[in-house]
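A quick aside before the break. I want you to see a complete sequence-to-structure record at least once, exactly as it would be stored in a machine-readable document. Don't worry about memorizing anything.
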Amino acid sequence: MIGSTVRCIRSQKGYSQEYMAFQLNISQNAYSKLERGETEITVRRIYQIADVLEVSVYELLPQSVASSSINLKGLTGILMRIRLKLFAAFTK
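That is the input. The structure line, written in tokens, reads:
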């Protein structure tokens, strides 16, 4: 996921994989694997990539679950059933 974002931003800036690899002091093959998601990216490497691409680290990271919307439809009914079962269990 991060790799595809990096690839998109790199392409928009007109940077080659070779350029990125040189700036990150890694081989072009290693960089290519990074973009394809075939290797783990360390936090340190994410900061280095953001620096080379001149973007915020947050632009490279996927949206967190906390910031995405959660579908709460039906939650009220589920909570009511749990509440009734608990009430029944404790009133016996």
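Two observations worth writing down. The radius of gyration is 23 Å. Residues 8 and 32 are 13 Å apart (CA to CA). We'll return to this after the break.
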